[in-house]
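Hi support team,

I'm filing this because I wasn't sure whether my run with zinc ion finished correctly. The job status page said complete, but I'd like someone to confirm that the output block is well-formed before I use it downstream. Pasting the exact inputs I used:
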Amino acid sequence: MDEPRLSTLQALLILLKARESAPKKGYYFRSWMTAKTLVSMAKDLELHDHYALHTNGGTCGFDHVECLTKTRVWQTLLIVEMMIGGPQGRLQHHRRPRVCLTGL
Ligand SMILES: [Zn+2]
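And here is everything the job wrote out:
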């Protein structure tokens, strides 16, 4: 898996949510590791740069669907990181939630 795909991130997010329906021993640790992997993959895809571009008022050049998907996946990762890592005291990706004013 040299270069992740956006669809791979989406699939991992679905698996992460599915794991919640039947938590087993090690659930919290495995969920956190999945979240960390997701953030790393997202950074490989430069989703953080894409999001920053829009929050700074720039345009990316992607079609609307791809642009929206990239933005939503990055925002979802922020939520996942906070919901899984927060209660465990593991917020270490140093991302701060910001309100997107670009109308996406
Ligand atoms: Zn965009």
